[in-house]
From TrEMBL:
Keywords: Membrane, Transmembrane, Transmembrane helix. Signal peptide: none annotated. It comes from the Bacteria. It comes from Reyranella soli. It holds the Pfam family ExoD. The chain crosses the membrane at residues 55-88, 147-175, 181-205. This is Exopolysaccharide biosynthesis protein. The keyword Metal-binding does not apply.
Length: 216
């Protein structure tokens, strides 16, 4: 059997699908596998190749994991890492060395990109590079919002993790395509999500207090 060619798994992406000054995230991911020389690449190599899109990819992965049952609390703690980096003004996400040294096969990565890239291409019809300066002026605000969203993911109240996970996904897509309008909408959604979570927790506390006044 002929050896598997990772590049054959990638979706077809025309060279003229993006303006010359901006490469859509779906195309960037698909072309990434033209550069590795071996059969495996490290997570650190991937983050370096992603550059300023690394925050977007990191957040997107976290948001997807947070939607899985029982995983939201783990993501809630883990999200503090990129959030603090944003607050400190970092241009790209940097992973701990223990994680950065881990490797993934190029074939497996190609399968993952082949699954993700077409879906990203569909989303890119709705978002595009707009108001890039907003990413600089709101960097610390975004990091703070992410920290607070991470706290709400740890909440023990059922289903309260869904809205913050979706908001994190919105933030991820905004960073992937450098869409300032999408970023503002995501920050507004974050404010709404935090308000809903606070109201839900307050309602839960009030309910417990009515059921068992002794706990007051």
């Amino acid at each position: 059997m002929a050896p598997l060619n990772a590049r054959e798994l990638l979706p077809s992406m025309p060279d003229d699908c993006a303006p010359p000054d901006h490469l859509p995230a779906s195309v960037h991911l698909s072309r990434m596998l033209e550069r590795p020389e071996g059969t495996h690449v490290s997570i650190g190599w991937l983050m370096n190749e992603l550059g300023d899109r690394s925050f977007g990819v990191t957040l997107l992965v976290m948001a997807i994991i947070a939607l899985m049952p029982g995983a939201s609390a783990f993501v809630g703690v883990l999200i503090a890492w990129p959030a603090i980096q944003l607050i400190l003004g970092h241009d790209k996400a940097v992973l701990p060395q223990l994680l950065a040294r881990r490797e993934i096969s190029v074939d497996r990565l190609a399968r993952l990109i082949a699954l993700v890239a077409p879906r990203l291409a569909w989303v890119e019809r709705l978002i595009r590079p707009r108001s890039p300066t907003l990413f600089e002026t709101t960097r610390r605000m975004t990091g703070t919002a992410m920290l607070l969203l991470g706290l709400t993911l740890v909440s023990p109240v059922p289903f309260t993790h869904v809205m913050p996970a979706l908001v994190i996904m919105m933030l991820a897509l905004a960073y992937l395509e450098e869409d300032g309008l999408a970023l503002l909408l995501a920050l507004l959604a974050a404010l709404c999500s935090l308000g809903v979570t606070a109201a839900t927790l307050w309602g839960a506390v009030e309910t417990i207090d009515r059921i068992d006044p002794a706990t007051h």
